Give the backbone structure.
Amino acid sequence: MIERLPLAHLPTPIEALPRLTRILGGPQLYIKRDDLTGLGMGGNKTRKLEYLAADALAKGAKTLISTGAVQSNHCRQVAAAAAKLGLGCQLVLAGEEPVEAQGNLLLDKLSGAQIFYTSKVNRDHELQQQYTQAEQDGLKPYLIPYGGSNPIGALGYLNAMRELQEQELEPDWIVFASSSGGTQAGMILGAHLTGFKGRILGISIEFDSTHFSAQIADLVKQTAQELGYDWSVAPEEVLVNYLYCSAGYGVLTQAEIEAVNLFASEEGILLDPVYTGRAAAGLLDLVRNGFFKPNEKVLFWHTGGTPALFAEPYSQGLLRR
């Protein structure tokens, strides 16, 4: 059994969204604030790192190694966890090194992470090379996969569903940004173990194929096996909406711009341009098209990412003209 190392400020609060509910004229909207988990400015990856970091320490690791985009929220929290635990940190980031460090990248560097830049195509190869080199250098590395999405990391959102069970709200729907799959896999298994009766809908941020649903289903099965359970779901039972990611990863459209502005101006809640902005844009569209019943309770699970608001090209692109 993987132990949990407390790193997050939990439980994260649930807030009603009365102004958005009224403006949209749809179901009762709520938000769960995993942007407030605290570590390195918070986000959903901190829940995963509570288990991944515990496993790393149990195995005697001295260095955390992971990967993501240049503005990766995951890598920012890995770097913060490493700093908090007195570990080294190496990050392999897909993209060109910017002239000036902004947003998440600035926070990576403030946390003391060593940065390696590569192309997205070569990301996994470069990650493995850096891990091998760290081993040879005696740094005792622990490899955290993209998004922290493996059977150990997914336990963070199994635990989050237990947390939700202890809070007063019983939503009919949970809607959130789904990208590397670990958050959704943990939620699905957690829903099964807690008897949650609502439905869990991921808004795909990057992948436009149902292969992603199959990938999540496989991770659910692996996570259950990690805990000694023989339980699984079929890919068609994994609810992922693929309608809002056609523009490409990290590409701003008017939908994301509207969602970020609407949440900020009407509820005082900051979303990020890549993940929660796109998921919220999907939520707004679904409400406007009558996807949810008027009497249903819909919980938007805020997965964090706010520092990306302060990075080019997003900072100016998000301002309404």
Notes: The chain has a mean pLDDT of 96. The longest strand covers residues 63-69. The chain has two domains: 14-43+150-317, 45-148. The CA atoms of residues 181 and 212 lie 8 Å apart.
